[in-house]
Amino acid sequence: MDPSLWIRRYHPAAEGAVRLLCLPHAGGSASFYHPVSQALAPDVEVLAVQYPGRQDRRQEPFVDNLPELADLLLPVLLADAGANRPLALFGHSMGASLAFELTARLEEAGAPPLMLFASGRRAPSRFAGEENIHTRGDQALLAEMKRLAGTDSRLLGDEEMLQMILPALRNDYRAAELYRPDRYHHIKTPVTALTGDTDPKAPLDAVQSWADHTSGEFRMHVYPGGHFYLVGQAAQVITEIRTTLAGFGTS
Fold this sequence. Notes:
Blueprint: H1 3-6, E1 7-8, E2 18-23, H2 34-40, E3 44-49, H3 66-78, E4 87-92, H4 94-108, E5 116-119, H5 138-148, H6 159-178, E6 191-196, H7 204-208, E7 218-223, H8 229-232, H9 234-247
């Protein structure tokens, strides 16, 4: 499997720089992390994941469950050209659940990450009842997008763009809403949970429960904002990532 299909490197990094694997939210793509890559280079090399079925991979079939997606990503990551360098994971929303699954697999493979940054997502054991946005019509999906403010409002009036976005969004909502951690419940990797103080998808008590899933150090940071708090708080989030990774003596 060609790693370049899955992993995008937008900026060069210093020799030996730590890698940060960034996993997008539902409906998201690798390009969401381009500004993060620019801000962290050259001290940290951002590896932005491109899921099948979107942008330049739109001809490929979607993957609609997170354990399978983690199984596909694992050999790509282990075969990556920089695999001999330390690695941390950052996932937002659905990406945080995927990062958890991938962290467990990396530990099992003898390549544990330095840190799991879980952003805008309740802990794997904290289910939000019967979520079924993925089974509803397009208007319900659009309403959810507006509620979470995760998509440029200009796109919501662009019918052609919406037709490109909605299939990936529906697929990812299915993956996120049906996800249950039936294989792994506990990791050793330290976890830093980040969230917005008014995020309707990630209540603070449910984010705090990430502490129950690791035997490593746990920290939680709460920022002003909703589900996509990290857009408005980008500078603060990037500072947290940089400071944390520098603490490992790797950047």
